[in-house]
Design a protein that fits this description.
Number of domains: 1
Strand content: 5-15%
Structural class: alpha/beta
Number of strands: 7
Distance between the termini: 52 Å
Order of helices and strands: HHEHEEHEHEEE
Number of helices: 5
Shape: flat
Radius of gyration: 30 Å
Strand order of the largest sheet: 4-5-6
Length: 226
């Protein structure tokens, strides 16, 4: 584009009009793109804390307990320093969400178990045996549960049947045993838990039987968007 101006004053006026017009065109293009193109909405990761109001947050239960007159505290110190909160020696209840967002130290597990042995109670929320929330460092809850129970139970069999994929397109490599294994995934499996320590809650209890479907024991990612 070539612009020819007859005078300096007129050229400056025309040039300013040109700049305003060009800026208006750019602004219109930006507005049009914002309207037509889908915007990516940032959704913060919900974490199981007493301040989080999201899907995994514990803000609602914290508010409910507080409004009900229950003295409720957010544990922001190591468990071995819990007495700094001026709590009774026994009769307290701790809410624990597993798996942790960060790996806990061995000393933390020992402190929790010692605190429970004093006559306190721990209520455990589990995201899922094989769930992998975005806020967690590890999707495996079996190790934390074992640390928390301090070997209080004996599992009759540690051989969990987990779903696995079989490639049926391999032709001769596919065997009948593979199909049989897949069928077993839909049959209930039995687990047996037996108390390994003496406790008033375990009185007259020899074992606990539980049943599960192996097909449900598979790793999956928790969708925080819905």
């Amino acid at each position: 584009m070539i612009l020819k101006f007859s005078s300096n004053a007129g050229s400056e006026s025309l040039f300013q009009n040109f700049l305003f017009t060009f800026a208006g065109i750019l602004l219109s293009i930006v507005v049009l793109l914002n309207v037509l193109l889908p915007q990516q909405q940032y959704i913060p990761i919900s974490r199981p804390t007493s301040e989080d109001t999201g899907k995994h947050g514990l803000f609602a239960i914290y508010q409910w307990l507080t409004s009900s007159g229950v003295r409720t505290l957010s544990l922001r110190k190591p468990v071995h320093r819990i007495q700094e909160y001026d709590l009774p020696y026994a009769g307290n209840v701790m809410l624990i969400n597993l798996p942790y967002a960060n790996q806990a130290l061995e000393s933390e597990w020992a402190a929790i178990n010692q605190w429970i042995e004093q006559g306190n109670t721990a209520v455990v929320f589990v995201a899922g045996l094989y769930a992998k929330p975005e806020w967690t460092a590890s999707g495996d809850v079996f190790a934390p549960i074992k640390k928390l129970t301090a070997d209080e139970f004996i599992l009759s069999s540690n051989n969990f049947t987990v779903e696995r994929e079989v490639d049926v397109d391999k032709g001769s490599n596919f065997e009948l045993s593979d199909l049989q294994d897949q069928v077993k995934l839909f049959k209930p499996k039995r687990l047996k838990l037996s108390p390994a320590i003496k406790h008033s809650l375990f009185e007259n209890i020899e074992a606990l039987d539980a049943y599960y479907l192996p097909m449900l024991m598979r790793s999956h990612t928790v969708d925080d968007d819905h």
